[in-house]
Design a protein that fits this description.
Layout: H1 3-13, H2 17-30, H3 36-55, H4 64-75
Length: about 80
């Protein structure tokens, strides 16, 4: 890490929690990482699609315990 990077980190860590959260949000935005709101919307859309497919009999339900038993058997856990 460069001295400048270390200085920026030290300065950021000295900020109050609410201001650090603002800095984190801005940094994450700059990385083009989806926000929690965007992620929640994507999961909501996926859940609605899966439920619609289930209701329209495009997919069938499998008992969760059966699924986990198969996973345990496959990975011997």
């Amino acid at each position: 890490m460069t001295t400048l990077t270390e200085k920026i980190i030290d300065e950021a860590l000295s900020l109050p929690n609410d201001m650090r959260a603002v800095v984190v949000d801005k940094l994450l935005e700059s990385l083009n990482i989806p926000s929690q709101k965007e992620i929640d919307l994507l999961w909501t859309n996926e859940a609605e699609k899966r439920f619609k497919d289930f209701k329209n009999k495009k997919v069938k339900a499998i008992d969760g315990e059966l699924v986990f038993n198969e996973i345990r058997k496959k990975y011997k856990r």
